[in-house]
Please model this.
Amino acid sequence: MTVRVRIAPSPTGNLHIGTARTAVFNWLFARNQEGTFILRVEDTDQERSRSEYTENIKSGLTWLGLDWDEGPFFQTQRLDLYRQAIQALLDKGCAYRCYCTSEELEQMREAQKAKNQAPRYDNRHRHLTEEQRQALEAEGRKAVIRFIIDDHREIVWNDVIRGKVVWKGSDLGGDMVIARIPETDEQTFGQPLYNLAVVVDDIDMKITHVIRGEDHIANTAKQILLYEALGATIPEFAHSPLILNQEGRKLSKRDGVTSIDDFRKMGFLPDALVNYMTLLGWTAPDSTQEIFTLAEAATQFTLDRVNKAGAKFDWDKLDWLNSQYLHKMPANELVELVIPYWQEAGYEVNLKSDRPWLEQMAALIGPSLTRLSDAPKESHLLFGETVTYSEEAMAQIEQEGVKDILKAVLDSTEKVSELTEEMAQEIIKEVTKTFKVKKGLIMRSLRAGLMGELHGPDLIQSWLLLNHKGWDKTRLQGVLS
Ligand code: GLU
Model:
């Protein structure tokens, strides 16, 4: 059997973290099994679907490295297929037209509520006679197509992640609507609804494993009934745990981020984010291993190592992973990713002439970054912003003899057009000799004078970067004046 799996997002919003994580599990499973990963866009809800969301979903999956083998397929281009299935269900007597008005359905719900019963459709139009049907149509009522759900059925499946799952037919809310008939097009059953379209597509696309979030469990019970009615082979189902926030509730907009775009803008790297999502609910056979590429994870991925319990979203862990990826990234790559953040912070960068300078800057700040968005804060002094001197730094500068030392450094620096690392070392050596002081004192004083702090990234590198724009001289002059 060749494994065929799919991700089936609805383009009613940007690529969501939950959908992306489902895509990760599907992708890993497909790659592990040398199967096929399909992208299907579930756009039958035409009012809420938008093409820019489809684009966002595609670019988000691509950004994360989740390439698909077939598709994107669009449900709106496959309406004929759903209509054939609906007709087949009507012909077999598995489905019927229901003419209830929204007021009637509302009354039904109110009556059930008054009796403390769960809301459900009471199947009242299941057995209409031809005359009753015609009479209702003569009233100008519009029908929906409902699929018969036997209250006495027990639906059982062996979920690959959760084991045996049992649902009672009576808990599925009565006969379910599978299509609406739009006024403009009465013969076509116009709009198929989610459960019907999913099943028809999964059958047509020969999906072997449906891997999706556990919020779809009740749908699975309904869908199994549809597979049976359509005489199709039922695929394996694997319901993955939801992503929870720190309070143990489903991660939502209130937690500040939901879409992959949000994470990108916050300065997470795709490799780190996708690595983190892999760990959200899955444990590698070697449970101590936490850093891996998608391809590495794919060699080890099995569904039986996906947890049943909800997966708590852990920002510290994501930050930690992101920093691991940032710290090992070569400066020539990092600089490209950091430039937009510098530009957004308002720093003037000339992408041509400043390029080597910017790359050195990236190399210098790389080890202090947790997110790309930290770049402006970690480098603002190297971009010549006015220094606020800390008390410690002031005390260092005010120490006896320190200003003379800084003056000597400044004088030597002014003699060279552009400082190199060797020259910088030479200047420090000379000044050490002249003043007969320890190198440490000079380094501390110079750091205080140039950066206004006694701690920070490599001093010589910082100095070289400032020197490129002449800001080292301006700062030392400022301190000495
Ligand atoms: N369109 C559904 C969703 O986005 C797909 C669910 C499924 O995978 O069947 O949740």
Remarks:
- The mean pLDDT is 95.
- Residues 17-32 form the longest helix (16 residues).
